[in-house]
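Sequence and structure are no longer studied apart. To make this concrete, we show below a single chain and its fold as tokens.
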Amino acid sequence: MNARRTFLISLTVYLILAGLVSVMTPLGEAPDEADHYAYARYIALHHALPQGPEVTQGKHPPLYHTLAALAGGWTGMGLFLQPNPDVFPIRTDGPANFFIHGPEEGFPWRDGPLAFHLARLLSVLLGGATLWGAWRIGAEAFPRHPEIGLMAAAFLAGLPGYLYISGAMNNDNAVGAFGALALLIMVRIIRQGLSLHRTLALGIVFGLGLLSKVGMLSLWPLAALALIAPIWPQRHQVEAWVQAGLHVLAAWGMGLLVASPWLLRNWRLYGDPLGWGLVRQTVDLREGPVDLAVLFWLGKGLFTYFWGRFGAIGQIFLPGWAYLLAGLLSLALMTGILYFLARRPSPAPRQVFLILLLVGAPALTLAGVIRYTAIALGTDQARLMWPSIAVIGVWVGVGLAGWLEMLGLTSRLRAWTLGLGMLIAASLVALATLFLLVRPALW
């Protein structure tokens, strides 16, 4: 079985599972879904972006919500969500659903529910694009180990935390897809060298990612790393640095050009390009510093959301033993990563740049999350790491490849068999989570 067919199996499984999540999760019962729907609805009805804090998600760039409005605007996008008055205060023995779900949400969908499901379908497709990006990043960063990209895709395809967001109306799915594509272009620049069309393509993707979510900016500094890599052998020549610098400026300039309508609008309305004044009006502001206690809270939340935590505010947890197993698996994967890297001969400069890129992406995204944590509460959600989720999947593939080497299972057939077995096991876990935990709690 070749790599493409193996990936298509993972993609098919993902589309089935994410599709089930999108259909079976009650509408509005994923993080910020009701507010994202309100944003897309405003665009569909008014053919303009909202101003001020009334539409709370209006603080975000508009690309995802504009696509959702285009997909569902013809339905009428009526209001139908009815808040559940008994949900607060959140109790372990109380209701978990934030909204009351009636027959209007039943199939065949019409009006608002239909528009909502079309937006969720958009998310599913964007999540599939991210999956493809993870496969290609792994395959092209480690061409001698095609199993890495395949295992990255298989892991994400069955990860409950990834599937839950992929089946939700949420702009993190858009920034995940554009982040994966940007990182893939940077891998190709490092491997294949400078070219104007790759540089401009990177800038366009940067701009589209920024128009999806501001978190995309965490990947922009990596353009300098990727565009310096090809000229590194000529680093003693001034002309080489000038060439690399011009390419960096071209990538960033193209990104700013693509995003400029939104940036200029923010500057005009709110006084700065990213609209931080509006952000501060629409989030719960943090009081006090980001100390060790806050960092521990943040790390715990990112971990639990990543592996699986559900509901509108993450109020539905996996059993405690599931997180314990996930922690042990995480330690095992880190061991595998270290083993895999230690076993490689002295890397060529190009490979060093690739490793720095793959380390830098999640590191910079996490730094951005910590920076945002200094401003807002509720930032302990793994979806804020989605600009680099494809690379996180690749590191899982590297860790598994390390264990294959440790166990002497180095043939591609064995590696792909293990990858498919992991996909099947993860899929069963995801199905059990959906049918036995999430759906009963929310209906």
